[in-house]
Prior knowledge:
single chain, 353 residues, alpha/beta, Rossmann fold, seven-stranded parallel β-sheet, three-stranded mixed β-sheet, globular
Amino acid sequence: MILVTGGAGFIGANFALDWLRERDEAVLNLDKLTYAGNLENLATLKSDARHTFVRGDIGDGALIAALLAQHRPRAVVNFAAESHVDRSILGPGEFVQTNIVGTFALLEGVRAYFAGLSDAERAAFRFLHVSTDEVYGSLDADDPPFAEANQYQPNSPYSASKAASDHLVRAYHHTYGIPVLTTNCSNNYGPYQFPEKLIPLIIHNALAGKPLPIYGDGSNVRDWLYVGDHCAAIRRVLEGGRPGETYNVGGWNEMRNLDVVHTVCDLLDELSPRPAGSYREQIAFVTDRPGHDRRYAIDASKIERELGWRPAETFASGIAKTVRWYLDNADWVAHVTSGAYRQWTDANYGARA
């Protein structure tokens, strides 16, 4: 069995679903079910005996200790995090609590559990911490992509909290001998992503006839990684990664935000045409967010060289799958875009228009 934390969120749920499609090994899934955690993401596993869901917080030390003692997982994969930059700007406290204090509590539980394992169990055990490329800061247009040896230079409360969690994970390896692995990924997209992030926000607003908000001039660059490729990379790192090492996971797809939005609009024009004209007509440039990093780019050559992983999806293939999924799952979108969601979008974008 493996323990997956944050396994009802976007990436965690995709990982649990993909894991049980690819493996017979059971998943113990722990999630606090905050706004972005959604049991509907796991609906297809409801009758799967290999999947056990527990509602709880990684910061609850007693719960972590009890779960580890009862289920004795051979690995922990930590997805649990607050992950949205805009939310971290409006309310950084939750990011400090979950990403730093929560990761510390989880590591403490794992440290106590690891100490009680046999030598053979210790040799097989892994703690995989899922992090972000944002810890490296921002790149200029001509800078090389982020490599694993890049200096950490986080620029938002979110990325600073993730950087702190990465440092804690590293320290627990060097100080206590926990066999840790860290992955730093680029921007994910795909099914089950909460519509606060760029791609599902644009799809949702476009279909609802609302403005498509673009920060600044839309020239901020990100590397885009299809979530299924990310899940495959994590499985590969868990299987063959060297303890103590970091692996950058990217899609080799650098694109400007405006070009991403244009691509989504063009796909919607094809798959769900708007009688009044192209969805591009709904694009609205809004005031940029504070400290908006200009460019992220991932050098994913280490994971390819050492572990043989490379993304299977191009941006064209991945975004086509993503748009179709949202069109085919309108009920899921309707359920997650509740009154609380509308209050959030009003708070974040209302003053920027």
